[in-house]
Amino acid sequence: MPWDFWLIFLILSVVIPWRGRLRLQQLLARPAGGSKEKLVLYGSTIAFQWLLAGVVAWRALARGLGVVELGLAHPFTSPMLLVTLAGAALVGTFQWFNLRRVGGMSGPIPDFMRKLTERVLPISAIEFGPYTALAITAGVCEEFLYRGFAMAALSRAGLAAWAVVLVTSMLFGLAHTYQGKSGILGTTLMGVVFGIGRIWLQSLAPVMVWHSTVDIVAGIAAPKYLSQRPKET
To answer: Are 226 and 161 a contacting pair, CB within 8 Å?
Structure first.
């Protein structure tokens, strides 16, 4: 594997988790801010993700990874559209009901998610628009990084398909270290589903839509169900 690919994998496995955890510690160390702080967070994250995806795309193409290997060339047919919409409905529904379930719970994990919701997720229309742009950015850029570049690079290096899905899913889970152990586990399992979908459909477009849907639903459901503690019975 070329040296720049190793460098990219180092960024995905070490720098991204460290950066996310550091930013979360900084957020939790100060009182919850208003719309201005959230909009700055959304804007800086969008810029960082597009910059990283652009650099990775540049190096991938320069090293001979084609658009087919990267999952960017498969035509978006009617059957694929139906699978994409059905998958989005499925993962979106699961996300909604899972957050509603967590909202009725008490304990360290739900309390942590409430703090995260208060500081990161939108609570007003002026916040929701930029947040939606962030969710779409995450769906496009993160899927390109993990299900596009990483899967293509590892496949070219000779790893079996199951190992490629497992490794990239673990990297995807580590990228969400800031969400705690449950977040790492949940996003790792989600990465497995997305990785299988990527291989099955031979395209990144459906998993990009699924990923964006999960994040958009989180932006709606989490503030609704996690904005306050459950009532004591």
So the answer is: no
